[in-house]
Amino acid sequence: MAQSRLEKIGTIFTRVQGLLRGGAMRSEDKPIWYDVYAAFPPKAEPRFDRPAPEIPVRNIFYAEDVVRAKLHKQNRPQETINLLDHRRTTQSQHFVKIYQDLKSQGALDEQRIYDTALDLLAEQRQQSRLDTAAAEENLPELDAEVKTQLVSDFKEAASNQQITSSTSPAPSKARKDTGVGINIDSLFKD
């Protein structure tokens, strides 16, 4: 064998290099990263026994994160969120947008901006509920239109089928001979 496959001996680069030299791996099969690593080796070799650097992890907070956290702490979310739907914005996104718009005007302090944004969000929710209720009231009229359209479409299809069956009698006789027991011509008669 060209070299050991144990991860504690050498690096992945030295192991692939050994496989290439020993003929266990063809040069066409070498990984894409091999030539890049050979051309630009890292400053510190990535070995198993190398200690991890002690770099402190920075906290990354955006201004809207603090506002969103305050919103969710004081008000329990009342919506179901579909993570696959990118077109619809959530209530917290609406709230942050309202909050930022009010803050950009600069006339109020932080607490008043927060309270005003909550009130405006509640008004928007109420308005959307009213719009939904109004749309549901208009549905019966729409249903009547859809029903008449469906009835006319079925009548048209029935008349088209009767015309087709009267012009070509041979296929209808073949259907009757199959033994299914259903006469399609009689289904659409008035």
TrEMBL record:
Polar residues bias: start-end ranges: 158-170
Keyword check for Ligase: no
CDD domains, per database record: At1g26750 (cd23701)
InterPro entries: mS23_dom, mS23_dom_met, Ribosomal_mS23_met
Molecular function GO labels: structural constituent of ribosome
Domain of life: Eukaryota
This protein's encoding gene: mRpS23
Residue numbers spanned by region Disordered: 157-179
Gene Ontology cellular-component annotations: mitochondrion; ribosome
Keyword terms: Mitochondrion, Ribonucleoprotein, Ribosomal protein
Protein name: Small ribosomal subunit protein mS23
Any Gene Ontology biological process: translation
Span of domain Small ribosomal subunit protein mS23 conserved: 2-125
